Amino acid sequence: KLVESADQYDPSIIANYLSNLAIKINHWYHNYSVTESNDELKKVRLNFIKATQRVLVDGLKIIGIKPLDRM
């Protein structure tokens, strides 16, 4: 999406991607327990959340939006 956005000079492509990603991670988070998982599964799920957070933070910075430190 980054290349597509750059080629078309259209930052809304990235914004829409990030919005859809946030919706999907929110649904996932509500369907899968992180804190009540066994240790190995908890570690995998936390890494998944951290990776998604990194994509969201980096994507927001790319389009000039300062991400919040906390909600």
Describe this structure in words.
This protein has helices at residues 2-8, 12-31, 39-62. With 71 residues, it is mostly helical. It starts with a helix and ends in a 9-residue tail after the last helix.
List keywords for this structure.
single chain, 71 residues
What's the gist of this structure?
The protein is mostly helical. The chain has helices at residues 2-8, 12-31, 39-62. α2 runs antiparallel to α3.
Q: Which class of secondary structure composition applies to the elements? A: mainly alpha
Distance N to C terminus: 26 Å
Which segments are poorly predicted (pLDDT under 50) over 5 or more consecutive residues? none
**What is the N-to-C order of secondary-structure elements (H for helix, E for strand)?**
HHH
Radius of gyration: 14 Å
Task: Work out the helix count.
Answer: 3
Net shape: elongated
Main sheet?
Answer: none
Strand content: under 5%
Number of strands: 0
Percent of residues in helical segments? over 70%
Give the overall pLDDT as a whole number: 92
Task: Give the helix/strand layout.
Layout: H1 2-8, H2 12-31, H3 39-62
Helix pairs in contact: 2-3
